[in-house]
Amino acid sequence: MDEKSRVLVVGGTGYIGRRIVRASLAQGHPTLVLMRPEIGLDIDKLQMLLSFKKQGARLVEASIDDHPGLVAAVAQADVVISAMSGSHIRSHNLLLQHKLVEAIKEAGNVKRFIPSEFGMDPLRMRHALEPGNITFVEKMDLRRAIEEANIPHTYISANCFAAIFCPNLCQMRTLLPPKEKVHVYGDGNIKAIFVDEDDVATYTIKSIDDPRTLNKTIYLRPQENILTQNDVIAKWEKLSGKVLEKIYITADEFLASMKDIHADTDFANQVGVTHYYHIFYEGCLTNFEIGEDEAEATMLYPEVQYTSMDEYMKIYL
Ligand code: NDP
Ligand code: GFR
Fold first, then answer.
1. What spacing in Å lies between the alpha carbon of 242 and ligand 1's midpoint?
2. Domain limits at 121?
3. Catalytic residue among 139, 191, 242, 246
4. Of all atoms in ligand 2, which is nearest to the CA of residue 139?
C-alpha cells in the first residue's frame, strides 16, 4: 500500500484547524503542525500543540512571514492544509496565506494544497453584499495565486459549521438555544446545510489523496442536514419539549439592522448579517446544482457516518 501522504497543517490550533489535525492523525497520516513563535504566552495554544505531539504529530517551528522557515516546513510535507482564520474580524488574516503560497511555489514538492475556505463557495459569492463580501474577495484572490502558480489544490465548501449556526436555531450573537422566542428569517423555509465540524475535518482529510478531487471544489451536503430554519426549530422544539414564540423578520428589516451595528467596533456582526442574509434569505448554499467539474463529499465517501443535527443538538438540552 502506498505510504500515507505527509500532512502539514497551518492554523492547526484554530477552531477547524485543530479538528483537521486530529482527523489527519486518525486517518494515519504523518502529521506536521506549524508552531508559530508568535504564540508567545498563549498557553492554551502551546498546550494544544503539545497534545498533538503526544498524539503523534510533529511540531514544525516557523512564522508565516519567515519565508525560509516556511519553505523548510512545507518541504517536509506532501499535502499542506491551511485553516487560517477568516476575515470576520478586520484582520485580513486570509491574505497571510499568500506567503504560504509563495513558500509552496519555492519548495516545489507539494502534491495538494487545501486553502482556508470551509464555507460558502467564494466563486459563487461574487455578488455578495458589503462588508461580508470581503471574505469571498480574499478567498478568490488566493485562488488566483494558487492557480497562476499551478499548485495542485482542492477547495472545500463546507456550508454551515453546526456549532455556529444550528443549536442557536440560526440566531446571531449567541451560540445557545433561545428559551422563549426565536427570530425567523423570512418565512423560515429557505434550505441551508449544517455540518458537524468534525465531519468537515474527516471529509477534508479523505479528499487530499483522491484523484477525483484534484483541482476541484468539494461541497459537503449531508442529505439529512439540508434543513430550513423551520426544520431546525421544529427539531429543537421536539427535543426540548418546548414551543418557542416565532418572530418573523423580513429581508429588509434584517438588512436594516446593520445600521444599528457599529462598523468599527462590531465588524464581525456586520459581516455576519450579510453572510446570514445570503444563507437564509437568498439560499446561496442550496440554490445551485453541483457541476460535472465539482464533487459532493458524502457521495465520494459514503462510508463516513456523518452526524445528524438531531444528534448534534442533544448536548444542548
Ligand atoms: P480561527 O479564528 O480559529 O483561526 C485559525 C488560525 O489562524 C489560528 O489558530 C492561527 O493559527 C491562525 N492565525 C490567526 N491570526 C493569525 C496571524 N495574524 N498570523 C498567523 N496566523 C494567524 O479560524 P476558524 O477556524 O474560525 O476559520 C478557519 C476558516 O473557516 C476560515 O476560512 C473561515 O472563513 C472559515 N469558517 C467557516 C465557518 C462556517 O460556518 N462555514 C465558520 C467559521 C469559520 P495558529 O494555530 O498557528 O495560532
Ligand atoms: C457558511 O459559510 C461561512 C460562514 C463562511 O464562508 C465564512 C464565515 C462564516 C461565518 C462567520 C464565522 O465567523 O458566518 C458568519 C460568521 C459567524 C457569525 C456568527 C458572525 C456573527 C454572529 O453574531 C454569529 O452569531 C452566531
1. 35
2. 7-158+196-221+289-302
3. 139
4. 6
